[in-house]
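Quick review question:
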């Protein structure tokens, strides 16, 4: 039997989650604050991403119970739906995966590089779900 895992699960929007701003393709300018340094982790809209589906809570430190099979992202999504998701699951889950428009980072790496749903979680992993679609 696999031991319980402690995993950090975070939900949010693409803006303000510690991701460097992308360079403007037309002007070549980067987002900056006073002092001219690259802007990291500042959010113009503190709430408005995927965290709204989770009672506005962005970060969750969760302990996944021990089970026969290793924990993977597919199992984590089922657990999240049962234990954390408070409303409108259709805005977060589609089939056995996340909806298009939700970027998943595992330990700051794109999940597509790590096997997506089949990635086996390790103790102390960090999984970040970023909503890249915003209303205007």
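Suggested answer, residue by residue:
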């Amino acid at each position: 039997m696999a031991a319980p895992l402690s995993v950090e699960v975070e939900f949010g929007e693409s803006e303000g989650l510690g991701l460097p701003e992308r360079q403007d393709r037309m002007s070549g300018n980067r987002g900056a604050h006073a002092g001219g340094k690259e802007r990291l982790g500042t959010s113009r809209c503190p709430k408005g991403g995927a965290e709204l589906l989770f009672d506005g809570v962005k970060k969750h430190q969760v302990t996944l119970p021990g089970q026969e099979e290793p924990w993977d992202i597919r199992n984590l999504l089922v657990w999240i739906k049962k234990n954390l998701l408070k409303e409108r699951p259709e805005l977060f889950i589609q089939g056995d995966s996340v909806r298009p428009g939700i970027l998943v980072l595992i330990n700051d790496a794109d999940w597509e590089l790590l096997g997506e749903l089949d990635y086996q979680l390790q103790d102390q992993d960090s999984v970040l779900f970023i909503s890249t679609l915003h209303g205007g």
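Why it works: The chain has one domain: 1-13+47-135. The beta strands are 5-13, 59-64, 93-94, 97-98, 102-106, 109-110, 126-131.
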